[in-house]
């Protein structure tokens, strides 16, 4: 009976199932290995190690995509691209044009210090196109993410206790020796830079929480425990981009995902809370750095030092954007563009100096590096993906992925972009598009 049923399955469908399964295996391998592999030389070389790991894994995916596309053309049953995929292709085209016209041609395509040059961005888009066309978010993939996060969180918690597992910190130092005390920077887990860690936690924490919807307590507690661990790590490292992402993105998720009969009250509650908070901040100058800065901003007083120097970075970039509005300076070429370094003073004494390598705001970074057309196409891509999330929010897979995506996007308004975390962003968008284009299955269904 089984053999007879197998014979009835068209060759095209069997081919599609094989490639779909291989892309699912690749996605699971990517999530686990890319997240957990820190490289062989600790945090000193983690960006280079992650970059080359991404290149190798992306090359495998591109090979699968080319194979599948060739089969489609051979059978003359290839599907047209969706609007979201066209927007991704437009973003790629404008990025390549930016690299071709860059005043820094030796750095715009690939170099060892700027890891998100044109080659990397091109692979981001190919990852999105292939997974969105032939991928599928399944329960197996969520389990891979869950079990990959377990050692990530355990490693981070050990580091919070002052340990140095696997010698990731230089010498016999630990997390608390960082922040320019005995070495430059602050690093956690298998991601490294705490800004990247914070943004990544903003991506995965809401996924863990929403996965428990509709589950009984005995089924949901592992996800809740892991979500609490992720939130605890985000609070411990005290990086605001991830916390802001979780707070702002969480409010948006609550408004979008709540039942229709409660939506008006949710909007009123969120709006009233925001208004009350802004009123308190306007009236009182609270003795907390970022709250003091918000108080000053509400009164129209702006200083370059606000946002740990982000206002200084944004001002310099915005002043230069009109000079190369259409094509920018080239992908990830900020460090070569001659921006004045940020200098921090305490009591009139210089205590820190940092060169500017990124806008610490993803849309502004795209505008400055790749130009206005690239930014508009990127915004179209993200906007179409979020529209799919809103319209198909009853679908459990899209609901979970979209919640992580919106929190991550809110975090990336204040976080630098990096090859260490951006592939997860593109993969999340791709899985939303893949599920939205499919008429069958949810995240709870296996193949």
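-> sequence recovered:
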């Amino acid at each position: 009976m089984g053999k007879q049923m197998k014979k009835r399955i068209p060759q095209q469908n069997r081919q599609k199932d094989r490639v779909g399964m291989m892309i699912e295996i690749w996605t699971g391998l990517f999530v686990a290995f890319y997240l957990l592999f820190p490289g062989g030389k600790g945090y000193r070389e983690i960006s280079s190690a992650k970059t080359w790991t991404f290149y190798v894994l992306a090359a495998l995916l591109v090979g699968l995509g080319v194979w599948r596309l060739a089969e489609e053309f051979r059978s003359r049953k290839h599907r047209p691209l969706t609007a979201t995929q066209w927007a991704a292709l437009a973003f790629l085209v404008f990025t390549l044009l930016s690299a071709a016209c860059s005043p820094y041609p030796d750095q715009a395509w690939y170099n060892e210090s700027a890891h998100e040059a044109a080659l990397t961005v091109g692979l981001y888009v190919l990852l999105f196109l292939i997974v969105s066309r032939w991928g599928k978010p399944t329960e197996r993939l969520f389990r891979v993410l869950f079990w990959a996060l377990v050692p990530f969180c355990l490693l981070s918690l050990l580091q919070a206790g002052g340990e140095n597992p696997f010698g990731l910190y230089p010498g016999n130092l630990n997390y608390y020796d960082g922040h320019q005390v005995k070495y430059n920077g602050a690093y956690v887990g298998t991601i490294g830079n705490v800004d990247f860690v914070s943004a990544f936690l903003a991506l995965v924490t809401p996924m863990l929480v929403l996965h428990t919807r509709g589950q009984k307590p005995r089924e949901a507690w592992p996800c809740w425990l892991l979500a609490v661990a992720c939130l605890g790590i985000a609070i411990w490292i005290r990086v605001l981009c991830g916390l802001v992402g979780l707070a702002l993105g969480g409010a948006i998720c609550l408004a979008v995902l709540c039942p229709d009969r409660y939506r008006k009250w949710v909007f009123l509650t969120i709006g009233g809370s925001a208004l009350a908070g802004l009123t308190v901040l306007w009236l009182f100058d609270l003795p907390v750095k970022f709250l003091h800065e918000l108080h000053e901003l509400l009164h129209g007083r702006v200083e370059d030092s606000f946002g740990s120097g982000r206002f200084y970075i944004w001002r310099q970039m915005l002043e230069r954007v009109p000079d190369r509005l259409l094509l920018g300076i080239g992908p990830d070429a900020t460090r070569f563009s001659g921006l004045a370094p940020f200098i921090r003073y305490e009591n009139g004494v210089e205590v820190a100096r940092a060169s500017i390598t990124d806008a610490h705001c993803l849309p502004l970074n795209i505008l400055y590096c790749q130009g206005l057309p690239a930014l508009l196409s990127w915004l179209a891509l993200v906007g179409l993906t979020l529209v799919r999330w809103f319209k198909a929010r009853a679908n459990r897979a899209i609901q979970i992925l979209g919640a992580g995506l919106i929190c991550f996007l809110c975090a990336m308004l204040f976080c630098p972009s990096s090859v260490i975390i951006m592939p997860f962003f593109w993969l999340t968008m791709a899985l939303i598009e893949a599920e939205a284009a499919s008429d069958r299955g949810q995240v709870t269904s296996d193949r």
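Confidence is low (pLDDT under 50) at residues 1-12, 439-447.
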